[in-house]
Design brief:
CATH class of the largest domain: Mainly Beta
Radius of gyration: 28 Å
Number of domains: 5
Number of strands: 52
Number of helices: 4
CATH topology of the largest domain: Jelly Rolls
Largest sheet: 8 strands, antiparallel
Structural class: mainly beta
């Protein structure tokens, strides 16, 4: 048995994902170019209306660097190393970074600003380790006459390797030419090497206390003490605040692990390991809930509370509220629901946490958060099944060694037999001939040691294993019978050159701040460290007492094909064929609500098994979706199964795209009804462009003959809703969804 000593300290280095650097000029920006803002006299605005904005459309072909800084803006590198904020048009590149313009930048087509530290610290192949110390500052903005001001922006970042995770990405506001500053943290405590979670990609702050009524407001965006990766910003704007704008800033669904303190969220809980009395209060497996609420509006949020609604297999069975609190404007409060949710049985559970007040909420889109968990018979897994990225020990100092370990802790509460370890294999490097195995460890409190209990066979890595894989542990008739205690699923890998060579899926949405629940072991220094990364890896127990079959409901959206005329309601029919019915086809799917979404429920699907399927029009395999050798749809059956699909991904079946489809750009989308369509027509075919509503009525139509480039701005005078853009050149039919807000 292998024994190791644990240390709580962990250090990080950049993820070594090498790419070709693109040389950018770090010289001082010019003071030329048109101003990006308007300083007209203010007019009274309504809540949410824009006071001032810039999309950073600073391209200037006449300037040697390709862009110019508008008059009144200021950029400075305090260290005088040339590591400034710069304007970029298409991508972020550097030694460890090679990214397209971030998808959450809605106006990325006209450029954005960025500090590419990966480039700055590897200019011309020469490596440095200089930390960022640069800011960009707006011209004075006239907010006089404005009773409230909110600043909004889009951001995307990844940073490393400072001493902590906060205070390095700052938005600062002054109204007295920099004598005093109000400072807001835009890093949100996100861990090293982590790309910006979705919930932090579009931050906003109510700055009324420093900006409202002030004629000389300036915004500074300051990036400091960070030597690696990047920070990018787009779509900066100041808006009127809403009167009633309560936000749910963060949430914590917390499981009772049988200790004095909760142990965070767990996505898959075995029913055999919950329900017993622990060391603290309540029962193991009970859920309680906390939420951080911000009053971002100008009126008091009266009787603000955190609400929790829980569905089990689609049916509500739990609804609780926290004690109420009146939250003043710009104030925060953390509210807690301590009346526990006790999972009563096997099932798929959906948690919806909401910030609620007596006021009539004006921005409901940021008032709730949703979580899922499953109480099942055998799978014990903290993470979900979705990998936002891949991870191995290369992101830690002294890591990236053959035989390094990544582990996840699972608390066993009753005697149980273990069968296997399951994990998501995300990626690997074929050229180094990697192999891997899973390991089960037990923590011994008497010896304060991590002891190897069982392993799997060593597996040679190849592309067939790029999936969620289950590997049996080697049983000896004794070790597989687990007794109550702390166990760790472990993953170790080897490859030529003394590196791991394989990366597990990384659940970046999972919290990993609970002490000793994620550990790594680095062979180069024979030491355990605490980790803030959650690999997708779980434990399979030998227990099969849960339900074995469930109902699956198929919903398929046919609106694209109704709009294109390929599917005629009342004349054509759609069905679903797959492994669950031996590919013979189902009964006809129905559209009881008349909304273009056809539905069918199938009983007795085997739980835990993967099914494959396709939708068909009129039972025809030739023109069914995903023809031409494209893969079938796949789905693993759970206790509760609602599948929401779009027929053939919204592309006309039986047709093959050529260069036209890849050359289409539609922006902005969503829009207020005014949007631009750009496309290339290399075949010089006649192109017909049509916009229809959900009922198939034509809202816009135009034919273009022998045009190589088409650049059409369409201004629909149509109500808010969903529309379809149809581009047909006689060879390819391309349909895109448009949203008018």
């Amino acid at each position: 048995m292998k024994r190791f000593t644990f240390f709580s300290l962990f250090l990080l280095i950049p993820l070594l994902s090498y790419s070709q650097a693109t040389k950018l000029s770090p010289g001082k920006p010019s003071a030329q170019g048109d101003p990006a803002i308007s300083l007209k006299e203010p007019q009274v605005k309504a809540g949410g209306d824009i006071i001032w904005e810039t999309t950073f459309n600073w391209a200037n072909p006449a300037d040697p660097q390709g862009w110019s800084l508008p008059t009144g803006w200021e950029i400075r590198d305090n260290a005088d190393l040339g590591n400034n904020w710069i304007w970029l048009a298409d991508s972020i590149k550097g030694r460890f970074t090679n990214l397209s313009a971030p998808a959450n930048f809605t106006t990325r087509a006209d450029g954005f600003i960025c500090v590419p530290m990966d480039y700055y610290n590897y200019r011309d192949g020469f490596e440095t380790n200089n930390a960022s110390d640069t800011y960009i500052m707006t011209p004075p903005i006239n907010c006089s006459g404005r009773p409230s001001v909110v600043v909004k922006l889009s951001q995307f970042y990844r940073f490393c390797c400072e001493n902590n995770n906060t205070g390095h990405l700052q938005l600062m506001v002054t109204n007295d030419n920099g004598v005093h500053w109000a400072t807001y943290d835009l890093s949100y405590g996100i861990g090293h090497n982590t790309y910006t979670p979705v919930r932090y990609q579009t931050p906003e702050f109510n700055i009324s206390d420093v900006a409202a009524g002030m004629p000389n407001v300036r915004i500074k965006i300051y990036f400091h003490e960070v030597p690696y990766y990047f920070w990018a910003i787009d779509d900066l704007k100041l808006c009127e605040a809403y009167e009633n704008d309560l936000k749910l800033e963060d949430t914590w669904p917390e499981v009772n692990g049988g200790y004095d303190s909760p142990i965070g969220h767990i996505n898959y809980l075995p029913f055999s390991q919950i329900g017993m009395t622990g060391e603290g209060s309540g029962k193991v497996g009970d859920f309680t809930f906390r939420g951080a609420l911000l009053n971002n509006g100008m009126a008091d949020a009266e009787d603000a509370r955190l609400s929790a609604v829980i569905l089990k297999n689609g049916t509500e069975f739990y609804q609780k509220n926290s004690p109420v609190s009146t939250i003043w404007p710009l104030e925060r409060d953390t509210l807690e629901i301590t009346d526990p949710l006790t999972p009563p049985d096997y099932g798929d559970y959906k948690i919806t946490l909401s910030a609620v007040a007596n006021n009539s909420e004006e921005t409901p889109s940021d008032n709730s958060a949703t979580y899922f968990f499953t109480v099942n018979d055998s799978l014990y897994q903290r993470s979900d099944m979705s990998a936002e990225s891949g991870i191995n020990t290369s992101v830690w100092a002294n890591g990236n060694g053959a035989g390094d370990l990544m582990t996840v802790r699972y608390d066993i509460k009753t005697d149980i037999e273990v069968n296997s370890i399951a994990a998501k294999i995300q990626s690997f490097t074929p050229s180094v001939n990697p192999s891997f195995q899973f390991v089960l460890f037990r923590y011994s409190p008497e010896e304060d040691d991590y002891i190897e209990v069982m392993t799997t066979d060593v597996i040679t890595m190849d592309s067939s294993k790029l999936r969620f894989i289950t590997v049996p542990l080697s049983k000896d008739g004794e070790s597989e019978f687990l007794h109550p205690g702390q166990y760790y699923t472990g993953f170790r890998a080897w490859a030529d050159g003394g590196v791991p060579g394989v990366r597990l899926g990384w659940d970046q949405n999972a919290r990993a701040e609970f002490t000793n629940y994620n550990l790594i072991y680095l062979t180069s220094i024979s030491t355990w460290y605490a980790s803030d990364k959650m690999p997708i890896m779980g434990l399979n127990l030998n227990n099969h007492s849960g339900p074995t079959e469930a109902q699956v409901t198929f919903n398929v959206d046919m609106k694209y094909h109704i709009s294109s005329g390929e599917f005629k309601p009342g004349i054509d029919f759609v069905d679903v064929a797959g492994t669950f019915n031996n590919w013979t086809g189902s009964t006809h799917m129905t559209d009881p609500e008349g909304d273009g979404i056809y539905t069918l429920s199938v009983n007795n699907a085997p739980i835990g098994k993967s099914i494959e399927y396709k939708y068909r029009i009129n039972g025809n395999w030739v023109t069914s979706e995903y023809t031409g050798g494209k893969p079938n749809r796949t789905y693993t059956v759970r206790y509760w199964n609602i599948l929401d699909d779009v027929y053939n991904g919204g592309i006309a079946a039986g047709l093959t795209d050529h260069e036209l489809a890849s050359a289409i750009s539609v922006y902005p989308n969503p829009s207020n009804g005014s949007f631009t369509v750009q496309l290339s027509n290399p075949q010089l075919n006649e192109i017909k462009l049509t916009v229809t509503n959900l009922q198939g009525q034509v809202c816009f139509s135009r034919i273009y003959n022998n045009q190589i480039q088409i650049d059409e701005t369409i201004d629909l005078k149509s109500p808010a809703g969903i529309y379809f853009l149809r581009i047909d050149d006689g060879v390819t039919l391309k349909i895109s969804k448009l949203i008018i807000q």
